Amino acid sequence: MEKLKIGIVGCGAIGARIAAAVCRDFKKNARLVALSDISRTAAKSLKKKLKADVVLCGLDELIEKSDFVIEAASVNISAMVVKKSILKRRSVLIMSVGGLLNRTGILSLARRRKVSVYFPSGAICGLDGLKAMALAKIKKVTLITRKPVKSLPGRFAGIKKETVIFNGNARDAVKNFPQNINVAAILSLAGVGPEKTRVCIIASPKFKRNAHTVEIESNAGKIISQAENVPSPDNPRTSYLAVLSAIATLRQVFDSVKIGT
Fold first, then answer.
1. 43 assigned ligand-binding residue
2. Which of 49, 118, 170, 251 counts the most CB atoms within 10 A of its CB?
3. Active-site annotation holder among 99, 212, 231, 241
4. pTM, two decimal places
5. 203 is in an annotated binding site
6. Does the annotation mark 144 as catalytic?
7. Which candidate, 222, 18, 194, 226, places its Cα nearest to that of 123?
């Protein structure tokens, strides 16, 4: 069977971990063929580390060479990566989910063209329950996120005690914290949308880990889930669970046995 050709956009902490997993864990089913990054140095460094025969190229060439595209770059380009992949009928996995929150027409395009778009659960738990509960009437979806000050943009460096830095809907949360709150976007897409999904972000220098509490109420029952995440070894602003979630999603793509909703 011919191996699935994978291209990765973004060679930072997340992209590098996913690339290593493709080369190590999925080599029977797939091969990494292309890398793309705004920093040519980052792409070259990752290629050297992987010791893989991959092409370093721009986005269009990467999509052309790939069967399956993985975006691990930025909310600033994730919508473009998805749209271009769909137009070329390439399956695509997206890490920067926040970039698609205001571009749901792209997902409609994917459905019309019958192209698979994958959104890993990221740094939260309970998404399977939310998807099931969405078939009944959902009354409330709330995300309470606790973040160490050092994981936030520099403007919050002066926080000395536990402080609520945001309380509103998911759309505004993603707008104000585009690099820090992708979990709000994935909850919105799976549930009641960005306007009705409530988000509270609390910061403190005493917090050592990112923690996400998800509360869901519907006619089918109530779910409360909590994830306390260890930072990625490569980037303290990224939860290790988010990286593992992407790799687990890839495993599900290749495995004939699908577990979970």
1. no
2. 170
3. 212
4. 0.94
5. no
6. no
7. 226
